[in-house]
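Protocol step 4 of 6: record predicted structures for both targets in the notebook before any analysis. Target 1:
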Amino acid sequence: MNVIQIITAAITLIGGVFFYLLERMPGTTYFIPNNFNQALVADDFGFINQALPSLIHPFAFILLTVGVLGCKTKRGILFASLFWLTLDGLLELIQHDAANQFLTPLLPAWFNKIIVLDNVRIYMEVGRFDFLDLVFITLGVTAAYFISLLTRKERNSYEQANKQTE
């Protein structure tokens, strides 16, 4: 495990939650209740308001994945990064009109009975595809990849220094 990566991921996720609470309208996000105080809602970030979560999500989850799994190799970090790039990219693409018109009828009825999956249909039908989100996903993945490499090297250097002093 890499504590630095896990803490960075946790702080990023907490910041993302606060961003959603302050910047998104109640009822538009899965975990924000419809009766949440709308007086807190602002649009201080402009166009970034919609795209920033697309950066935060893969960034935090790559660091969390790499940190929990203790990935030390570039290959392991790259694999985790590509996994989250693919997942977040596909989640964005299924919001495109062409994709959701094709895929929505294929969703099984049992999705409605499982928490989190119960909103997939609404996510596809109501969500909107935005190319800027794909750009921000890519930026988040790239940043997480390089930060993972940097924090991995610091950890390895520390371990090597301890071995040399023993």
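Target 2:
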Amino acid sequence: MTHPTLTPIGTLHTPWRSIADCPRNGRQPDPAPVCEAHVLPAYVDGLRSLDGFSHLILLYWLDQATPGAKPGALTFTPPFDTEPRGVFATRAPWRPNPIGLSVVAFDGFAAPGILRVRYLDCLDGTQLLDIKPYLPTTDSEPAATMGWLDPHATRNRNTAR
């Protein structure tokens, strides 16, 4: 089996300097602070035509995530729950591959290669791996269910039930 090679395309800048300060998810701080995605010069041409998208999907490497259980553990008890859960049934940052994903509001460019975004939930200096446009016709599943997380979920204030 070959191992994938990941090449960061930039760096994310947020107000959070420690894991303790970082929100559990990007929808928690209200109002959501404006953060920045600084794209490396070699990748700036890839930002062409992002104007007009209201939301983006950012993928990033959670290099500072520390295990909530022993390293390599695939189950743990979330701090807001009483039962052990599988890591793949959670959004915990400690994973076999610590890849983070956020759907962010795109507020435009602060400068060439610098995107202004909101609803990000990672530490300042996190390495950005990829940017994809969020497509509500493809990426949204309004009838999706959240299993064990439903009673604990942070609701988007625009669609709270």
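Step 5 preliminary note on target 2. The two ends are 45 Å apart (CA to CA). The chain has one helix and eight strands.
Proceed to step 6 after PI sign-off.
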